[in-house]
Amino acid sequence: MDSTGDYLNCPLDRDQYERFVDALLEAQPVAAHIAEDRTPFFEACLPIEELARRGRETLRFGPMKPVGLSDPRTADGRTPWCNCGRRIAHAELQLVGFQNHMKFGDQGARAADDSGLETAEFLRFGQIHRNTYINAPALVSATLQLRAAQRVFFAGQISGVEGYVEAIATA
Fold it and tell me: Whole-prediction pTM value?
């Protein structure tokens, strides 16, 4: 692992990456809690195994993109096949860009395989988040008041804005 501030780079070679993708594709998803054939994901925030299902190379050009990194394990420091990024938070390492929809057992058993986390102790498993929102154009006035009960105001992401700055600006 190569440390850059509070961010750690863990380069993977092609074989490690291929085994990692295989493990993701074999992992069991959590059952959907909504009455739909398929859980609708927000395209800009997809689970890692969903990205893997979209093509074997997808992760290499998304959350595991190694551009600008060198592999310290090689003499010439060439760019690694992909990168498993981690962020240091207190005494823990957090995976970066690895939201998922896998059962907890598969996260520990499969997601760590050959990704440089073979000996990791998992303190918490990840999960996908689902955003709550209302149909603001139909329900909320320009002053962010609920039309049916004007004492109720909405602000932030629930009102339909996307992004931190936009959410803050509505508060």
Answer: 0.63
